[in-house]
Amino acid sequence: MSQPRRPNRRCGIATARSNVTASARSCDGSAAKRTVRFSGKEAAIRNRTYVLANGYDMHVFDRFYDRVKNDPKWKSYALPCGHDVMLDRPEELAKILLDEVRR
Q: Is the whole-model pTM more than 0.70?
């Protein structure tokens, strides 16, 4: 049986258990560098929520949070955890998602 890899501090992965789950994913920030093209259909989306994981030292997503945090069309949250919110803060994320479904 192989040993879990050491926690990946760059992505804010704090525990070996979380690292095993996230090991198949890259956390080099490349997703934030991709261009998103909007068609205009996104304007029809009524409920918009942005969750920022800000408990680690990679701030490529902060600019998106800053853009929506004061916009009344958006609900925004900043959680003090690593990039994989669902691993670090599952209860808080579940509450956010359930609240969004009920909106």
A: no
What pLDDT, on the 0 to 100 scale, is given for residue 60?
Answer: 87
Range(s) of the domain holding residue 63: 42-103
Q: How many domains does the chain have?
A: 1
E strand or H helix that includes residue 79: strand 74-79
* C-alpha span between 10 and 27 (Å, rounded): 8
Which DSSP state fits 61?
T
In 3D space, the residue among 29, 88, 24 whose CA is nearest the CA of residue 58 turns out to be 29
Distance of alpha carbon 21 from alpha carbon 85, whole angstroms? 12
Per-residue confidence (pLDDT) for residue 53, from 0 to 100: 94
Flag whether 30 is in a domain: no
- As a 3-state breakdown, the chain gives helix, strand, coil percent values, each rounded to 5, of 40, 10, 50
Q: What H or E segment, with its residue span, contains residue 51? A: strand 48-53
